Amino acid sequence: MTDRTLIDALRDADAVQFGEFELSHGGTSDYYVDKYRFETAPECLELIAEAFADRLDEDDGGAASAADGPKLAGVALGAVPLVAVTSVETGRPYVIVRKQRKEYGTANLVEGELADGEEVVVLEDIATTGQSAADAVEALRDAGATVDRVLVVVDRQEGAAELLADHDVELESLVTAEDLLADAEHS
């Protein structure tokens, strides 16, 4: 799959919108990437799962099979569809990282099976400041996981890579804000 294919799919799903938008971190932007538009479009989910699988296969460290590679993790709620379809695509198990501990049941912050020392790759939808991904990395590390990589669909290029680097984590994106905005100028 090419970056062009994914950009076209995001645009076809009306996931890239222009106007004045308030962002979750409190800032404003003249464009918005609506994750729910692409996370509810089967063709986008399929392309994203394939692209994440390709990235995981490129850097699997010579694992004999997908099950031998790192476990996947998705941040609730936005990344859950992404981690689920990527799990199906790759055959890799996954866990879900809550943004806050629930106050009932098991009260887990990380849902699913996670062994001490297990290598985990975090999947995210959109990275702006990177705080959500950094929080997930810390929760996983507190649970005993080894995490040094976050894969994101769209990097808005507003500090996420730098914040994650401060946590010794590499951010990789399928597309960047630059890609999407350049595309909009040529549409």
Account of the 3D structure:
There is one protein chain. With about 190 residues, the chain is α/β, with parallel strands linked by helices. The chain has a single domain (about 40-185), classed as Rossmann fold, CATH 3.40.50.2020. The protein has helices at about 5-10, 35-40, 40-60, 80-90, 130-140, 160-165, 175-185, and strands at about 15-20, 30-35, 70-75, 95, 110, 120-125, 145-155, 170-175. Helix 3 crosses helix 4 (about 80-90). The radius of gyration is 16 Å and the shape is globular. The model has no long low-confidence stretch (mean pLDDT about 90).
Ranges where pLDDT stays below 50 over 5 or more residues in a row are none
CATH class assignment: Alpha Beta
Report how far apart the termini are: 20 Å
Oligomer: single chain
The averaged pLDDT comes out at 90
CATH topology (level 3) name = Rossmann fold
Rg result: 16 Å
Number of β-strand runs = 8
